[in-house]
């Protein structure tokens, strides 16, 4: 089943050959909607296949499929509306320095996009997911490298996307699927691949990023690799609603067996009685969580090893011990440590607590001063999200400076909420400083389309030779500046 | 004068320490305008310094300074107007899948930007140039690595920028200057450098790009490396105005001793009588050009060697022989070859003709069929520009398909014009597929500011904690979606 180098080459060439057919925005929008319709019609099959391969369960998968088809339809709207073309028009100005000719700028698709599917979302971040939807919306054919955890689901979804293409008169090869680790490496090195999207681990993503950068012609590599998603709870917030925050965190960190990229994995909570109440509520909530099956055995093993290593560090307490549940399951847990363990000169071992541990565990660092919060935040890598819990009335004035300290650390900053649940929306930003993402882009939301485009300016070009979007009088009525 | 690693570290830390002072958009705009004013006031000194170091002459340098100060002022307008913040606001929607909270997205500065100055523009692409102006406009302090061809000009300009900062109440260290090859390498590796802008050679740019990608935390590297800037002349265009096109090309390719990054360096012209007339006009124009001093001895030597190597290839003719002029000068020239020399299986030696040769030379490839044009275009690397000359009345219908073939090759496509002279304008795109640039961005024009920003979304954040640009009621009146 794993694709050979020759098969990857054929896949990329087939996709490349299909690119001209995606030039028409109306056809692209219809294709994305038809793809959503076919996925909805095949709902029972898709969810059955995905559940058999991932153990995520029909409830979660039904929601994920709804998210996936809504995402395809929202990109159909983005394509039709046209502001993603980022059109700017300058009329001639012979008096400028240097003199200015007629210039009309828009954005064109980059070419074949390689999409690396994620383990933890067999639909929304895999074959029919956000990278595929945004690339097709941009006019780029995709070659998807399936995740080995759900090959049959991938095949089923690819077949539905290809059928949707055919229904709209497009070549089926606007979407091509390949399997295999080596195939993934071949793909990012292929001369006709123009860009790549990736969701997965730091190790795997970095290896592909490095391969993309080392090419004779380097290509953009938009990878979402890993995120700790820190949470800061102020003393006033803990004083006001310790139990509510503890229960909320227990729900967010155990959701989907802690396998969301936005799982809050590190929490700064005050020492003292209010912080104790918070920790007790968190502990109670996590203790009630049923053991869960993780996505695959490799991840389960990594979780069991990861929490054991962290729990064995000096001074780390385990209010609820995470680790192996039954033979195939894991049980959720909480690790607690004093924040000053992280900040000392001899604290390098403890920096393991500042690395993402995929699965249902969070680390609570108890701080005793505002300065300690700043010191710990200064140690954190880049994140997808950062969350601040403050009192409903910001009486101590801590909120504004804390928000200013959290903003450099993440692509999405939340106040009094939880980061799991990433809305598909125009204002969404699902990305952040490395290693959260390898670029400044988002993989969720309308602006995700920007990753697969580049600007081109037409200068002094006769009107009839311009794309209709750039012609005098704006015959297609697209937004222009 | 060359900065040691410790001096680079001090420079970067000083710039990093100044970053918070750039947060206010009004102050940034005032600073950019004051910088332009101080450069204008010191015009005589600046031009004298630059002419002494580059031999570009006061006429060209006066124009370049006007361009530079106009560019600073245009970025002041960009900062004030605010649409570069790319604000998107989603109000809450509890019925969405998943439910949507209040989300407000804008863009924030990345941090310290390393700017690598160009040899060929001591002002407009150096210390006070486009990379510096756009980075400061974005709110990023800059550390400029001076080009060794004009250290005194660089010092003078840096001092003026720093004085402008002080006049506006900003720390002088929002602009810091360093010298030296090793310092440049240290700079791109420094952990507090968040992005880099570069204008220069493929070899130097690629080495720095590789260093940026190999960091523990990779950073965006926006490099403008090299460009052949192909020109295609249709048979109908040659038939209609062979002399005009030949004379125009002679002017464009010899402008500034052929040292512009948009110099047209490769021309596809038809065989036969009309093409002969074009070549005769080009030859006449180039023959009349005075020998010129190049920017430095290294470049002069590279030009003399480069044209000799190209001229020695089988079948290459030299209607005007380029090469050494006097002891310090070069003379412009034209190389001509039959296009089929480039396309055969044994043509790899001749692919040297498809590489940029910095200086006043262009290669004219004579084609005998439309298919030959397509075959040669298929061999070209990425370019900043591509130019098409067609008849004023497009009688043969060749123009549209040729334009479609040129668009994938370049970031700016011109019809019946010349690519030298890059207007500072909203619709400008000065970038293109690798090696023209290492990213999809532009280094000239309003959108150049996008390189130094990343999006952040605030979710469920109380109004008084948001930046004013994102608050309810839009108190600052910035463009939002």
Would you give an account of this structure?
The structure is a homodimer of 481-residue chains. Chain A is α/β, with parallel strands linked by helices. Chain A has two domains: 5-225 and 437-470, 3-Layer(aba) Sandwich (Aldehyde Dehydrogenase, Chain A, domain 1), CATH 3.40.605; 230-415, 3-Layer(aba) Sandwich (Aldehyde Dehydrogenase, Chain A, domain 2), CATH 3.40.309. Chain A contains 14 helices and 18 strands. In chain A, the strands form four sheets. The first copy, chain A, has a seven-stranded mixed sheet with strand order 11-14-15-9-8-16-17, with helices on both faces. Chain A has a five-stranded parallel sheet with strand order 5-4-3-6-7, with helices on both faces. In chain A, helix 12 links the parallel strand 14 (333-338) and strand 15. In chain A, helix 3 crosses helix 4 (58-81). The relative contact order of chain A is 0.13. Strand 18 (453-459) of chain A pairs parallel with strand 17 of chain B.
